[in-house]
Q: What sequence folds into this?
């Protein structure tokens, strides 16, 4: 009898052993992540020498960490993922220490709609217009694009804050710049890509950017609404149109806003990239007891070339060039400044070397100038001219 029971027990074990293995495997598969957290980093270093600047200030000569990014990304499952990015920089304010900002922090859902690729992001997300330009230009390691850095070339008559415009722009007494967008913001974004030809982005964000989180003293409960449509009819060619409307202090029934429209064209061939963007912007503000808003209009043109000549010469020599124009006009509501105009231009060029896939460097010259017959602080006595040694390292 004991022998019979033993044989029966062994029979049951052998029958159910494969099932037990499958169950254990399913548990292990469910509990174990599909892949580990991906960690990466990017470092922008520079040496800056100011050759000349407007006014009588001393020329700057310094080594700087322009930016340091630390990224962590995790694929939760086939649909869900998340990303965190720390941005370390010194913004040349009263606190001269390097500070860490939360640049990106979002969750993403990417379900399959069956006719393309859909991605929905929620949290601190990248502004799609600036992300698109930086992606095609590969210029960010040298300097920002001039939608993001519009305060360099667009004048702001209302702002009383003069200061030093970023770490690369000289002080011009009384100058203050107009910003029309920021590179990241808190909100939600939806991207739909169809057949690698059509991309459509819609975003709704707070509008203050990643350094001002829900600053109600600036923007009340107004929001920024952005739409971008990009088309890639041929490989390497991209045409993009976009608009952004930021409501500021919406209790004033729509009289306070920051709005821009733009068109960009990019082309890439054998590691040679070229492109241009044209943007028209308008800023309207009304401060009680005024009955009419003050309206300023802006135009911006930003063209670039970025080339790695290895595919043509066999040597990874880098070349970069940029030409930017900015126009400011105060249409109405500025009292004695009504009709005042200012214009600015920036040109730059550089030569560098790509040491490997992770390290590159460039000697870079930039010349800035501002002109105005109506606004004294926007009429510089001579150009601001800077020389940099730029370097990028990544992992």
A:
């Amino acid at each position: 009898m004991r022998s019979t029971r033993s044989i029966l027990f062994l029979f049951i074990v052998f029958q159910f052993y494969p099932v037990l293995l499958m169950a254990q495997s399913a548990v292990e598969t469910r509990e174990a992540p599909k892949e580990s957290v991906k960690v990466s980093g990017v470092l922008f270093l520079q040496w800056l020498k100011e050759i000349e600047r407007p006014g009588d200030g001393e020329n700057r000569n310094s080594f700087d960490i322009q930016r340091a990014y630390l990224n962590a990304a995790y694929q939760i499952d086939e649909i869900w993922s998340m990303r965190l990015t720390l941005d370390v920089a010194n913004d040349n304010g009263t606190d001269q220490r390097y500070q860490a900002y939360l640049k990106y922090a979002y969750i993403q859902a990417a379900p399959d709609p069956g006719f393309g690729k859909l991605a929905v992001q929620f949290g601190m997300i990248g502004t799609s217009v600036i992300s698109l330009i930086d992606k095609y230009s590969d210029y960010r390691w040298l300097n920002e694009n001039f939608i993001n850095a519009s305060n360099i070339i667009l004048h702001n008559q209302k702002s009383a804050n003069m200061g030093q415009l970023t770490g690369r722009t000289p002080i011009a007494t009384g100058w203050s710049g107009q910003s029309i967008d920021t590179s990241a913001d808190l909100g939600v974004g939806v991207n739909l890509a169809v057949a690698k030809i059509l991309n459509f982005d819609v975003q709704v964000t707070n509008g203050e950017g990643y350094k001002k989180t829900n600053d109600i003293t600036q923007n009340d409960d107004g929001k920024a609404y952005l739409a971008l449509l990009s088309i890639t009819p041929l490989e390497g060619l991209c045409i993009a149109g976009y608009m952004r409307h930021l409501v500021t202090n919406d209790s004033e029934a729509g009289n306070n806003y920051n709005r821009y429209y733009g068109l960009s064209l990019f082309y890439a061939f054998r590691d040679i990239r070229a492109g241009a963007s044209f943007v028209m912007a308008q800023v309207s503000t009304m401060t009680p007891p005024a009955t009419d808003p003050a309206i300023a209009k802006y135009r911006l043109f930003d063209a670039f070339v970025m080339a790695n000549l290895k595919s043509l010469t066999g040597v990874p020599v880098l070349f970069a060039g940029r030409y930017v124009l900015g126009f400011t006009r105060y249409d109405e509501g500025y009292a004695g400044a009504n009709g005042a105009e200012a214009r600015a231009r920036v040109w730059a060029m550089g030569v560098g070397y790509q040491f490997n896939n992770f390290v590159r460097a460039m000697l870079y010259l930039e010349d800035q100038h501002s002109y105005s017959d109506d606004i004294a602080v926007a009429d510089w006595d001579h150009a601001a001219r800077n020389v940099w040694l730029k370097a990028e390292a990544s992992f």
About this structure: Residues 43 and 68 are 5 Å apart (CA to CA). Confidence is low (pLDDT under 50) at residues 1-33, 160-171. The chain is about 10% helix and 50% strand. The two ends are 69 Å apart (CA to CA).
